[in-house]
# Entry
Amino acid sequence: NKKELPMRRLFHLGVGGRLWLGFAAVILLMIFIAVLADLRLTAAAHSMQDLVENRVVKKDQVAEVKENLNLQARAMRNILLTRNVAIKEVEHDRILNARLLIDEIAAQLIPTIHSEQGRERVQAIQAVKAEYLEQADEIIELGMQNVNGTAANRLMSDEFRELQGRYFAALDSLAYWQDERMQEESAQLIAVAVQT
# Structure
């Protein structure tokens, strides 16, 4: 029977032939495992790169926005604490510079957010930012005109503090969401490392 002939040849191989055949099978298996490991490690490297170059950067950008918001709050307070026009101008310039930095960060950050959940968080930030800037500008204007009592009352009002809180909460929401993505990617990296 011609179909049985190749199988019979395997059984009739000498010890040397069987050793060579077994050795070849082990080498093929090792090559397969090496290729599989390389594919997994390449995927892990891409995930690590995303974690470092994308997620961590976004988290740092949000932290920098919050830092500049705090700088603006201190500068607004300083405008209201003095009647010295030169000091008011310096503090006003600090506010404008902080706003420019926030806008630059947003210009870098927003195009890097591709998921629907991320874009929803960015939209929430932009909505509260517009409202915050409008009220902050009114307070700053009153302070620049030395109507410090009224400006201080507005700055310390529950309404403005709640608005400022919503702005920070919207930023925190994006930062926490990035944290969750970072934790998910870290867990995937650990799983790949354990399996490889």
